[in-house]
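hey so u asked for the seq, here:
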Amino acid sequence: MKTRISQTILTCILATSHAFQTSNTVRPTTALSMKQNDKYSTTKSIGSTRKAFLASLITSSIIGTTAANANAEEEGFESIAARAASMAQKAEKEEAIKEEQFKKAAADPRSAYDFSLPIKGEDVPFDKLIGQEFTETSVVVKASVEGEEDTTVVKKDAKVKAILVVNIKQDDPIARKNIPELISLASKFGRSGEFAVICSPTDQGYFEPDTSALIRLKLASEYGYGINPATIITDKMNLLGTGAHPFWRWIEGTCRAPSGLGRIQGNFEKFLVDGNTGKAVRRYPRKYQPFDIAEDIDALMKGKVLPPAGSNWKEEWRNSDKEAEKDTYRFQKGLNVFDQ
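ran it, structure tokens below
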């Protein structure tokens, strides 16, 4: 806007300069006839008149242009301010909805131990599936006030301290990297039975043509998945829609993505479950590598607070949101049996 005003003023100044030079050109007087002098006087008079006319034209043009640009600038600022206010209100509403969703998720009293998962056609309770055992320890707490009795607190300590739950597709290209890394994590942390990986295949999203039995055979022969007792694979289940398995509906709703979204968007989303509480404590997007979860698993196993999420955690979630709109391996209505 400022550039346009500057260009207009420059044009006017050049025009004024040209008019001024035309009207003030020095004419020779010694060799000129009276007739020529009269002609020069006439030309000078015309030049002065033209100069005055151009000056008034320039002044009115600058004033008009400045006023128009000022009005346009004022309207532009008002428009920008209105859009900014609208965007701020929308962001506040979305944030309020997100916070409400997280509050509801935190208020859910259920844990993973309230569910069973299908293995070879049979529903197996979650604790038996991972070989969970609890050791009870009585701790005497001394009374803080004289005259009161000491209290005894029973603490439960879980054998399996961390569980990683993953929805998989064995023919997804990233399976070639994810599954070996999941096996490596199970080998590293599951030697003493303190860590387990549960993989759940599904027909939803990108098509999974094989039966549950054939998927087990393929994962065992191609990767060795299932040989280690810490690596578990369920039967195929529905993860979304009205026919979703209760466990998956619960874990998606109680451990939401940073955007507040509950439902999974793609293959290989991962949920880290605390073995002591049975609650999911962190969720990871499709392309977040299993090796990047090692620090979180280690913290859970040592009874420590989870460290801050990796620097690429939110970035991968943003990428996941973009891929959910176009990626072949997304979960979307119209792709296979999304709903029942």
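Residues 198 and 232 are 5 Å apart (CA to CA). The longest helix spans residues 34-107.
lmk if thats what u needed
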